[in-house]
Write a structure and sequence with these properties.
- Helices cover 30% and strands 36% of the residues.
- With 61 residues, it is an alpha+beta fold.
- The chain has a 4-stranded mixed beta sheet with strand order 1-4-3-2.
- The mean pLDDT is 94.
- It comes from Gordonia crocea.
């Protein structure tokens, strides 16, 4: 059984993505957010890291 689930997703525009999910009623954990990534809280144990495409690609190259 998993205690927490983290999913990394690339986005083209981080601020626009933050605005979109905030408008839907979600919130972000700013302790784990910066100019390259934002921690989108989807539930008590599920977080999606929205990452600028350029930053995300550093994990896959």
């Amino acid at each position: 059984m998993h205690d927490m689930i983290f999913v990394n997703l690339p986005v083209a525009d981080l601020q626009r993505s933050r605005d979109f999910f905030t408008a839907l009623g979600y919130h972000f954990d700013d302790r784990f957010s910066d100019g390259n990534a934002a921690a989108l809280v989807l539930g008590d144990t599920i977080v999606s890291m929205l990452m600028q495409k350029e930053f995300y690609s550093t994990f896959t190259d």
